[in-house]
Amino acid sequence: MFSHFTPRRLLPATTMTLLCAMLALPASAQWKWRDAQGRIQYSDRPPPTAVPDRDVLQRPAAPTAAAMPAPAAPASAVAAPPPASAASAATAAGEGRRRQAAAEQEAAARRADEERQARQRGENCTRAREYARTLESGQRIARTGENGERQFLDDGQRGAELRRAREVIASDCR
Fold this sequence. Notes:
With 174 residues, this protein is mainly alpha-helical. It contains 3 helices and 5 strands; from the N terminus they run H-E-E-E-H-E-E-H. It has helices at residues 7-24, 86-136, 155-172; strands at residues 31-34, 40-43, 56-58, 142-144, 150-152. A hairpin with a 5-residue loop joins strand 1 and strand 2 (40-43). It comes from Sphaerotilus uruguayifluvii. Residues 18-72 form the DUF4124 domain.
């Protein structure tokens, strides 16, 4: 007869019922008092000041912002600066994160530049060593002159080129 009410089918319904009941608890009245005519009153706000303390039957567990009346400020009072809010704290934290990200990005750019320069020095070193070996081998080296014809290096030019290659090796090959 009740075969369609299995525990598997009851579980979601029971869970939803309990969830709805738990969500409704904060909406229940927190204050309970007896008014001047003797009737019981319920509210989420405190009773009027005319109700004596002995007629207040139930109070909330802790005073809430809605239950506490706001103090009246005198008209001549100068407005105080607003306290630091969560939004300004979040803005400050976001600014700190932005600064940190910018510093990290700058450091990464610096590292990339240093790596590029190191790679370039390595390539210069390799070329200078090969050129120095070629110059030291005694092999004839020719260049193209201004007028487009081949010119061979003499011993003085070869020595100057070898000094320059050794300077590059000394500076870039560390």
